[in-house]
Amino acid sequence: MLYTDLVAQSVEELASHITAMSIEEVFATMRQLEVLSENVEGEEREEVLSRIALVEEEIERRFPGQLLAPYRDWKKSQPLL
């Protein structure tokens, strides 16, 4: 999913897509949103942060009680991040 797609689609659409994604796709989406949040300001940043919260919820749903540990482990295993 492209950066512009992540912000252009509604939160509801993103929520629908996230539930159908593989965990690898969910983690990659989270990473894209983190990078994007560092590069935008103001209202656009708020939009990105709301999407990050949505992805965080999905990760926590898939890994109950582990918070974001699986995502942090995934980031460590990615040589190019």
Structure description:
With 81 residues, this protein is mostly helical. It contains 5 helices and no strands. α2 runs parallel beside α4 (42-62). The longest helix is centred in the middle third of the chain and has 21 residues, at 42-62. The chain is globular and about 30 Å long.
Question: What's the topology here?
Answer:
Layout: H1 3-8, H2 11-20, H3 23-39, H4 42-62, H5 69-77
Helix pairs in contact: 2-4, 3-4
Number of E-state strands: 0
Give the proportion of residues in helices: over 70%
Radius of gyration: 12 Å
Structural class by SSE content: mainly alpha
Largest sheet: none
Q: List the uncertain runs.
A: none
Distance between the termini: 17 Å
Q: Name the shape in a single word.
A: globular
Number of helices: 5
Mean pLDDT value: 89
Strand content of the residues, in percent?
A: under 5%
User: Which H/E pattern describes the elements?
Assistant: HHHHH
Keywords:
single chain; 81 residues; mainly alpha
Quick take:
Helices cover 78% and strands 0% of the residues.
